Amino acid sequence: MLQGRIPSFANCSKLRVLDVSYNNLVGQFPTELPPVLQVLRVGTNNLTGTIPASLVNITTLTTISCLNNQIKGNIPSEFADLPSLQYLYAGGNKLAGSFPQAILNLSTLIELDLGLNGLSGDLPPNLCTALHNLQTLFLGGNIFLGGHIPSSLSSASNLYEVDFSGNNFTGLVPTTIGKLTQLSSLNLEKNQLQAHSREEWEFLDSLGNSTDLQMFSVSRNRLSGHVPNSLGVVTEWIGSVKILQQLVLEANFFTGVIPSSLSNLSQLGELYLSSNHFIGHIPASFGNFSTLQNLDISNNNLHGRVPLEIFKIPTIFQIDFSFNNLDGQLPTDIGNAKQLVHLVLSSNKLSGDIPKTLGDCESLEDIELDSNIFGGSIPSSLDHITSLKFLNCSSNNLTGSIPLSLGNLQHLEKLDLSFNHLQGEVPAKGIFKNATAIRIEGNQGLCGGPSELLMQACVVTPSNSTRNNESLVLKVVIPIISMVLLGMVIFGILIWRGKHKSKSISVPSFATKFPKISFSDLARATEGFSTCNLIGCGRYSSVYRGNLVEDEIEVAIKVFNLETRGAHKSFIAECNVLRNVRHRNLVPILTACSSIDSTGNDFKALVYEFMPRGDLHNLLYSTIDYEGSSDLDLLTMSQRMCIVVDVADAMEYLHQNNQGTAVHCDLKPSNILLDDNMTAHVGDFGLVRFKVGSATSSLANPSSSSVGLMGTIGYAAPEYAGGGQVSTAADVYSFGVVLLEIFLRRRPTDDMFKDGLSIVKLTEISFPDRVMEIVDPQLVQELELCQETPTALKEKGVRSLLSMLNVGLSCTKPSPHERTNMHEVVAKLPE
């Protein structure tokens, strides 16, 4: 691999092709070149400076490629006089300014790549009228490049590849795009394109003329509509684009059912429909796909069972059905998916046993079954999947022991079995030796394992050594001991009953301002706890929307699942917190109910003021609000800042209230609720700890000093992973992550965050010069690209954004001692 600077080639008078791509060359773009040079390739190096205008003197140039360097400036205006230039590749640099007008004079251009730069402004409306010989056009990744997609695209009738992704194009997709009959790839993702009515979707009809289309993406735009008013045209369109291989419609506003006719795309290899509002079932006809590799329909409102037909697709490589309402059992047919590498079914309502046949999927590297209702034991057949790297079965109802054979999986990097009902000894080999690679908290019956896990020791019962001793024990000792023990048990029960009446853990008494309410009142308010009124599920509880008839008020009723270990303590903890602390940015409690249900079982619930705007997580990632308009339209820069201020005020109060220091331990967007005025309220106090002096206590058990792992992956402070003590600094870390998420609109568990990259690291390396490349594109549009906004206001908005992100970074320092505290945070934020 070549290093250093590019030497002079001026004396190589007959040199026609100079290709020094893919090296480690540095310095300026070369200027000393032979006069008859035709092809110049210097891409994928570390060149700096600008593209020299002197290249215009080499009139024989047909190809210039300087891809993937550090070149600044813009395309020189002198390039308008290059008579033979056919191929210009300058993508992946730091070019800036408006679209270079000189290019419009290069009528000989066949391929143009200016993607992944910093170009801004609108595209010239006559772009393809001037460049009518274009065959490929790459302008993606210029986040300040906007305006409308020019209808003149159709003038370049030989275009077969168009990439406008990652820009800020607005308005409608021109129907003239359908005149590009040679089109094989059209990428319009990550823009602000719109389509609502049937007429605005005509561009999709017109693409039926592009019979060679193989790749089509309009993901992460603002396309919406019900079937058949929008996606209904897909049915007609499919008959024309039979060789389509990649269809990407994710992160829009689509509603209605998923058209089963999509399965007629016989050559489809990738189908992405995630982050929309599709309803209904997953079409069983998807099993007819014969070449499908990637199927992602996550983050919708789908229900019903996982079709067994899906697992009969011979080529299926990746399945992501997470964040839906799928229920029922996982089909045993899953074992047919021999090529499956990634299986993601998180956050549904799947139940029953995890199929043993899952172990037949020997190509799997990633299994994510967390946040469902799976029961039974972890199948030992998983040890057949020798390629497995990630296994997440957390937050289910799994029982039994952890299979010893999981320790044999040599490639396993992450294992999360937390918050189940597992029991017995933790295996001591393999991944279990790495305390940072596994999560097993929330399983009260586990013990033993490697010393690094800091688990309690297992109780071992020694066996007798001789047959004679065994006989003696069987014949004499055991009967005597049994009689003694029986008497002690009976006596103990009588004593316990007497004490239990006076010393059992009681529900904290609320003042008279909290009215009494019965189980029957809450049952009536929720129509018998109907699933139609279910608005959320958590680790220990379910939340229902209800109407208290007598008071005619709408409430949120949090019903605790007392069969789940820790639920009773969580109820007591929340009662204590809500009785002792009151603040305008904490979720207002109306009353509590501790009673028995209609079947005679214990029943415990909390009644809160209903928050019509839901939680912050849904506000960020769901796109239709309760009145049918776009939530993203509501989340302006100022509203995001107000949410941050509200949450900061709540956390400062918890940390410094007159009852002592309360540590929330689980701050995340789903625990932040918003009322009609978009005022944020922090809720879910089931894990709160009070700190008085240096002592820490659980509000459910004041004598307890045991902490365990706290929080949620992605939001929990790094010191918790190592068993660190509960502290306000850990809350500050969680607050910082939430702040960054609000402005980036990226989950800290996003797939992009791996190999050492996190939402914090991404912000650090982008701050301050490149933050506009990582923040929510809606904010980019609001702060930079609104033509009506005066420059002074734009600059003020950007300064506010930088100030906010800087606060987030100060809260997420790796060391707790380096982080700011909530009092300082509030002081830095606007009033």
Automatic annotation (TrEMBL):
Its main location: membrane. ATP binds at K558. Pfam families: LRR_1, LRR_4, LRR_8, PK_Tyr_Ser-Thr. InterPro entries: Kinase-like_dom_sf, Leu-rich_rpt, Leu-rich_rpt_4, Leu-rich_rpt_typical-subtyp, LRR_dom_sf, Plant_receptor-like_S/T_kinase, Prot_kinase_dom, Protein_kinase_ATP_BS. Residues 529-831 form the Protein kinase domain. Keywords: ATP-binding, Cell membrane, Glycoprotein, Kinase, Leucine-rich repeat, Membrane, Nucleotide-binding, Phosphoprotein, Receptor, Repeat, Serine/threonine-protein kinase, Signal, Transferase, Transmembrane, Transmembrane helix. The keyword Ligase does not apply. It is a single-pass membrane protein. Its EC number is 2.7.11.1. The chain crosses the membrane at residues 472-496. One of its GO terms (molecular function) is protein serine/threonine kinase activity. It catalyses: L-threonyl-[protein] + ATP = O-phospho-L-threonyl-[protein] + ADP + H(+); L-seryl-[protein] + ATP = O-phospho-L-seryl-[protein] + ADP + H(+). GO terms for biological process: post-embryonic development. The keyword Flavoprotein does not apply. GO terms for cellular component: endoplasmic reticulum membrane; plasma membrane. It is an enzyme of class 2 (transferase). PROSITE patterns: PROTEIN_KINASE_ATP, PROTEIN_KINASE_DOM. It is found in: Cell membrane; Endoplasmic reticulum membrane. The processed protein kinase Xa21 chain released by protein cleavage after X.oryzae pv. oryzae protein Ax21 detection translocates into the nucleus where it can bind and regulate WRKY62, a transcription factor. Confers resistance to the bacterial pathogen X.oryzae pv. oryzae (Xoo). Receptor kinase that detects X.oryzae pv. oryzae protein Ax21 to promote innate immunity. Following X.oryzae pv. oryzae protein Ax21 detection, undergoes cleavage, releasing the processed protein kinase Xa21 chain. PANTHER family: OS04G0122200 PROTEIN, OS11G0173432 PROTEIN. This is Receptor kinase-like protein Xa21. It comes from Triticum aestivum.
